[in-house]
Amino acid sequence: MRSFVADPVSEDLLEHGEGPRWDAVRDELVCVDIMAGAVHRWAFRGGRLAPVRSYVLDRPVGAANPLADGSGWLLAAGTGFVRLDEDGTTTELVDAAPGRGEVLRMNEAVCDPAGRVVAGLMAYDTAPGSGWVVSGDLDGGVRTLIPRTTIANGTAWDSEGTTMFWSDSGEGTLAAFGYDPATGALGARREVLRRDRADGVADGIALDDDGCVWAALWGGRSVLRVNPTGEVLAVVDLPVDQPSAVAFAGTTLLVTTSREGLDASTLAGQPLAGALFAVDVGVSGPPARPFRGELPERLV
């Protein structure tokens, strides 16, 4: 098993950094600070992240995925989807849970190879089975993909788009589903990895170009590389308790982390909690897939 150590590459500390996406068109990293409602753009130069621009919404933002035409991003924000233009203009789109914004929020959203967006809703109190996963389809519609989830989290597809990997941090599971890229339909589920929360559970994930999953371990101070059957092939060590998600920029693995919920004494022992980290892992991964669906110009 290979071992790596990730180094901090950002000056800023995010409260709950999440959803890193490498935008190949802009040659930038975009990530979110969920409860701050913030979307951050970074340039990665000389092994450091330099801020480009930030946007702040009036609600939590779970993820930002680039639009196929390069004009902005599709946000999973509040309980639905919002378009964010480069100049900061926002457009309300589809609400996946109307009237439930006080108890639910979007937690993660990733685009599949066809350009759909798959997003998870979760309850603020993380009650078991209180969330679900939706698919934002190419025609602008939204449908339930996985019912009764707890902390719907990282999502990624293999290069053919026929297998979807998905983590539920509340259940401590990383699973793989058969997937039809033509229709967005799920097939059979199999468990890839199960971990106890005391040892760190799979949070955000990314696939490398060899088809292996890199999973940030929330509560586990590390990122694991596992093959599709769950065999651990590599580990990346970090000096913070809460790695939250990962993304590839070539062979560089970028890792977001979180300070959320840590008390003062814990933070004193890990002052880099909330920083972004990076390490060259010697294998490349694809950039973020853009959203290619319709964007209805109204809240429905």
UniProtKB/TrEMBL annotation:
GO BP term (any one): L-ascorbic acid biosynthetic process
Active site: D203
Top-level taxonomic group: Bacteria
Residues reported in the UniProt entry to bind substrate: R105, N107, D125
SMP-30/Gluconolactonase/LRE-like region domain location: 17-258
Cofactor requirement: Zn(2+)
CC cofactor note: Binds 1 divalent metal cation per subunit.
Signal peptide (UniProt feature, chain positions): none
InterPro entries referenced in this protein's UniProt entry, alphabetically: 6-blade_b-propeller_TolB-like, SGL, SMP-30
Family: Belongs to the SMP-30/CGR1 family.
MF terms in GO: calcium ion binding; gluconolactonase activity
Name of the protein in its database record: Sugar lactone lactonase YvrE
Residues that bind a divalent metal cation: E18, N153, D203
Alphabetical UniProt keywords: Metal-binding, Zinc
